[in-house]
């Protein structure tokens, strides 16, 4: 049986048995591999790094979506940076009051292959009438003057800071995000696994504090993002996401939104950080 080996970290990796290769293709940006596995279902990897799996993505896509949306309570326009698999868009579409969803993905092949082979993950979100797919470098898109103060929510489903993804971890990126956010808008960012990616979290935290009035970190767990807790960071001009859970929404989150990971209790507890992560966030 063929084995997929992820090479994200030096001297440490994970192996997954491949039941069936669905497609293997080189785009102009990266090598795309989609395969079926026993424990994780369908998997997509880019340049030998796992991006999403059918069975465990909920801890990621739900926490990047429902935490800011339910905190804010009045989001109408959403920008998803990356997100070409469509999983986050599928979660955003659970809110009928949201009017517009833009996905900015640099690699058209990720969109095309996700439409064909990741339907159980995106549930058709990539062809939904509310969803506008933009094939562009996100670091360029967010400099457009016509987008100033435009989005109520920006979800940065960014890759690790390698290759083209490096631009999405520079201080200019956060400054440009601030410009496209509405006054009460919220931005959330993928920040890797602090156990292995301490520098990434520390630098992002530093840049967010320099750029925004309010910012912070919350946590989730995704088994294939090996190393324990995954850090998600947030920032806003006026909305304190660590305190403003919208308690006026009296509904059973798990039942009404059909979530597999997110609950009101998980929402609140995700902002409680272990001491070792608190120390990473201390100014130096």
Structure explained in plain terms:
With 284 residues, the protein is α/β, with parallel strands linked by helices. The chain has two domains: 3-53, Spermidine Synthase, Chain: A, domain 2; 58-280, Vaccinia Virus protein VP39 (Rossmann fold, 3-Layer(aba) Sandwich), CATH 3.40.50. 28% of the residues lie in helices and 32% in strands. The chain has ten helices and twelve strands. The strands form two sheets. The chain has a seven-stranded mixed β-sheet with strand order 8-7-6-9-10-12-11, sandwiched between helices. It has a five-stranded antiparallel β-sheet with strand order 1-2-3-4-5. Strand 9 (151-157), helix 6 and strand 10 form a beta-alpha-beta unit. Helix 6 (171-180) packs across helix 7. The radius of gyration is 18 Å and the shape is globular. The mean pLDDT is 92.
Q: Which key phrases capture this entry?
A:
284 residues, Spermidine Synthase, Chain: A, domain 2, Rossmann fold, 7-stranded mixed β-sheet, 5-stranded antiparallel β-sheet, 32% strand, globular
